[in-house]
Specification:
By secondary structure, the chain is α/β, with parallel strands linked by helices. It folds into two domains: about 120 residues, 3-Layer(aba) Sandwich (Rossmann fold); about 100 residues, Orthogonal Bundle (Arc Repressor Mutant, subunit A).
Length: about 230
């Protein structure tokens, strides 16, 4: 059982979310205002937060930003009727760990929160820091650096880098990366892996630095400091 904070101003939606999560065995607390939700989040004790994007008081992006500024990194599922790509990117860049658009299936809400909880449990049970060469990943603060250079990553970029660092030195196929990191069945026609690996390269391998991310022709990708 997890303790989940639901920050949602619409009573009907909040009731549906609460019922779904309670049925899944979780303890749920609901706040209807952004400022009150932030106060609850800063109080700690929650395993995950389902956060509406548009709220009175403070909007969802402001809530996440203030949480992180205060050093609180509870996993956040952004929930919003704003479904275009730019809005989803804004939610993830603000610090959301995942993004779910309204209307949604209650089962998907529960499943996405459970995935976030598994990731958190995995990080807690293993070393809080991963290192490959001068690249360092802090799994608690969800931050990355190379030497003295801080690296800004989106949540999925962070998850991809974490997977590659845990498998450092091994060649990882596109299928393995997709099905492990994105947790979906692999679509051979997708270029998602190439896009994210390219973003990571630009972030990780700075000018004058030894390349850490390598393409293995016909096989996949490898992260290696050698």
């Amino acid at each position: 059982m997890a303790k989940v904070l639901v920050i949602e101003d619409d009573d009907a939606t909040a009731a549906e979310m609460g019922s779904c999560l309670s049925t899944a065995g979780h303890e749920v607390r609901r706040e209807a205002d952004g400022a009150e939700g932030l106060t609850a989040a800063l109080g700690g004790g929650f395993d995950a937060i389902a956060l509406d994007r548009m709220l009175p008081g403070l909007n969802g992006l402001e809530v996440v930003a203030r949480m992180h500024a205060a050093g609180v990194y509870t996993p956040v599922l952004m929930v919003s009727a704003l479904s275009d790509v730019d809005e989803r990117i804004a939610g993830l860049r603000a610090g959301g760990d995942d993004y779910l658009t309204k209307p949604f299936d209650p089962g998907e809400l529960a499943a996405r929160l459970e995935v976030m909880l598994r990731r958190r449990c995995w990080a807690v049970q293993t070393s809080p820091t991963l290192k490959v060469g001068d690249l360092e990943l802090d799994l608690v603060r969800r931050s990355a650096r190379r030497g003295e250079r801080q690296i800004e990553l989106l949540p999925m970029e962070f998850k991809l880098l974490e997977f590659m660092m845990r498998q450092a030195g091994q060649t990882l196929s596109r299928r393995l990366i997709f099905e492990t990191v994105w947790e979906y069945y692999f679509d051979p026609g997708t270029n998602l892996i190439e896009v994210y690996v390219s973003r990571l390269r630009k972030a990780i391998d700075g000018p004058g630095e030894r390349a850490l991310i390598h393409t293995v022709r016909g096989q996949g990708y490898k992260l290696d400091a050698a």
